[in-house]
Amino acid sequence: MREAVFVRRNLDKWRQLEFQALGDNYSTPDQMVEAYNEVTSDLAFAQTHYPNSPITSYLNDLALSLHHHLYRNERTSWSKVVRFWTHDIPLSVYQSRRALLISLLIFVTTIIIGVVSTYGDPEFPRLILGDSYVNMTLENIENGEPMAVYGGDSQILSFMGITVNNVMVSFVVFVMGIFTSIGTGYYLMNNGVMVGAFVTFFIQRGLFVDSILAIMLHGTLELSAIVIAGGAGITMGNGWLFPGTYSRMRSFLMAARRGVKVLVSTVPIFIVAGFIEGFFTRFTGVGDLVRLFVILLSLAFVIFYYVLLPIKRHREEEYGA
Prior knowledge:
Layout: H1 3-23, H2 29-49, H3 54-95, H4 97-120, H5 124-129, H6 131-142, H7 155-175, H8 181-203, H9 208-241, H10 248-264, H11 266-279, H12 288-319
């Protein structure tokens, strides 16, 4: 093909691609990839047939420009990840705030039930925690190591086992929302009663400070994440129970997507909580101030990410503040 014919056939296309590249006017990444492939194909043809022609240099520059845009978009994909964690999830948390509050109330109420039940019947922890666990803990207390239960396995195995177990628990709590919010509420109640009985068991033996500092060192994040997973499950269940003006299926799917975002946010929390429990909770000789600092830092994060940031993001969306 003569060079003049080649240029005449493709010049309008090249100008359009150049205009789009300079103005970053591609609506989708696929369009940019398609444009880059077209230009590199034309460039290969020009390099073969017109290696010293100005049109070859022009196509080479255009291909480089498109490559730059592709590379830049690849890098900015990280900005989408950042936005997901700093905007999308907090907005979903705000939209699920009532369900999260209900989850918290259920959990706190059942913790109180566990506390009252244990004070009313000292054998209640055996019913909830099991005889073997209670007997082992009593033996540890007699040996002067009440928190020895946290130091039984190797640190890495303990971290991995705890993290996987906690993530699975949160997943079950969430998935039970498929069977309406009642299923999620039931699992929250079980966990709340267990925590209340567990803590009271130590309090009755004069180990209030030691037990609280040891348990809440990792428990601040872990228990918060369970409540959040419960809120995600209730969100999904409410979408089915209370569809409003939407069809029941559409309402459920919308609520499920929102709930999944909230649930996903708990995974890093469980990983950090598992790391703390597996590697640090066992060291009960660590100063109380250090443990208290970690507890307060964990609590500050939960309040910031699940209370303050969602409110801030909502105001930005609503008022452009």
